Amino acid sequence: MSTAEPHRRVVDGRFELVGRLGGGGMGLVWRAHDLALRRDVAVKEVRPPDPDLAEYDPEGARTLRERVLREARALARVHHPNVVTIHHIVDGGENTYPWIVMELVEGGSLQDRLDRGVMTPAEAARLGREVLSALRAAHAVGIEHRDVKPANVLLCPDGRPVLTDFGIAAVRESASLTATGAVIGSPDFMAPERVSGKEGGPAADLWSLAMLLYVAVEGHHPLRRASTLATLAAVLGEDVPEPVRAGPLTGVLKALLVRDPQARPDAAQVDRMLAAVTGDAPDPSQAAPAPGRLAPPTSYPLAPPAAADVTPAPPHTTAPTRGRRTRGTAITGAVLGTALTGVLVWTLLPNTDDGETGGAATPKPSVSQTARQASSGGSSGGVAAAEKVDLLSEKGLKTAVAKLTAAMGGTKVTSLVVYGEYAIADAPVAGHPKLYDRYMYRGGDVAVKDGPGGTVMTGAIPVDLDVYDWDAVPALLARATEVLGVAEPTSRYLVINPGSTIFDSGPTMSVYLSDDYGSAYLRADVRARVIETHPRDDG
Predict the structure, then answer these.
(1) Which residues are catalytic?
(2) Which CATH code, of 3.60.10.10, 3.40.50.720, 3.30.200.20, 3.30.230.10, is assigned to 2-102?
(3) Can you say which residues are annotated as belonging to the binding site for ATP?
(4) At what angle do helices 473-483 and 394-408 cross, to 10 degrees?
(5) What span, in angstroms and rounded, lies between the C-alpha atoms of 513 and 94?
(6) How confident is the model at residue 4 (pLDDT cuts 50, 70, 90)?
(7) Quick check: pTM over 0.90?
(8) SS3 state of residue 357
């Protein structure tokens, strides 16, 4: 870094930063001027979501840098009109993060376009085909995007969409980084398998593309909730409501927005379906791999379900229709518990097949395995199976809180989610306020620690569970049933929300109810007095 003018910074002695274009968890993006070629470019310094990564995990920081460089170089070889062009990579060496110099797209983002109004099904399908083509080009060189959303689709002045911000792919793949527990990606556009901590594969990018198209034509996100935690719960546990404005695009959305990635059509099929909506011919250049060349897989299997948690369902290729509830065969209550915290621990659930391991070391039991043992009469950490208790009842709720606080050795948490069958709490680590440990209670005599934990979300203020009026919560649940318009909920849960210095807010609690047709929630203070009510919109 050098300085050309007192108020300007120059990267690598060549790229003068002119103004900030945007930024997020992955770093800042600047408009810059290339002093050598005399053209404007976009410059991004890719950084991890946790700025202290290099301090407490130098190996993770080194791995991140190497992966960013490797994937940026791979992406630079992708010459595609719908993929952002990589012009240059600035590598400052060890203990630095790379700067990626990219094509500058002047027309704003798809999010800016959608802020002005919805798209017609044909318009969305045409855009979807171009974004799909970009994804296929990246998948062909082994890169998954992992954060397909309207803000990451830039629009050229002629309307051509350009997919950008591939840097998240490298960050998500860093094993050391993901162990810290940072949320990587936009929760409301992430596929369920990625939310639950699995690899995902190209099929997960197709889910995100479908969700982008759903938002484009419907004008709202079907699973977005009031908090990250609640959104993650919805992505994992709720079916996507059938669109009402998608017209001929409905079949594409229903086919892709299913929780089982293997039930989704592959990219070639999706292109044909989108082409049918637009009236155009499918892209013949992407119909099939050349002879002798293997195409990358379009999906990866999820971990087998726990028999006690899920009733097997036949494979399906479309989303559930109104009046019919279909539960994903691979998303279990225990896996849901793995993901639900203020931040995510990206733990790859080990394969539970009984086949030979080939001499590999036996993996540590995951949260889902622990839950399966408890529910099937086995034990984990000395905990035996016990009679099922509704933890959202007056007795069950107070018992869950008491058992969790006993296991945690204190009453402060950075998050707590209570379902009827289990409860999960994240408690700050003594002497390390940026870290938390995770605890689970599924009934019985004790709660158990289900590590590893992760890093506390920036700005979160640990809340003392003793400040909540637990006696009043059952009445709050009853109130939610009366006013939220969900008469027979298939899912209900309580979320304890800590305060935040970022949003200048204090602790609250939220009750969520959902059925086949959607969700609703209300928010209350620590005394269970209702602050906000958001009933389901049946219109």
Answers:
(1) 147
(2) 3.30.200.20
(3) 44
(4) 130
(5) 49
(6) very low
(7) no
(8) coil
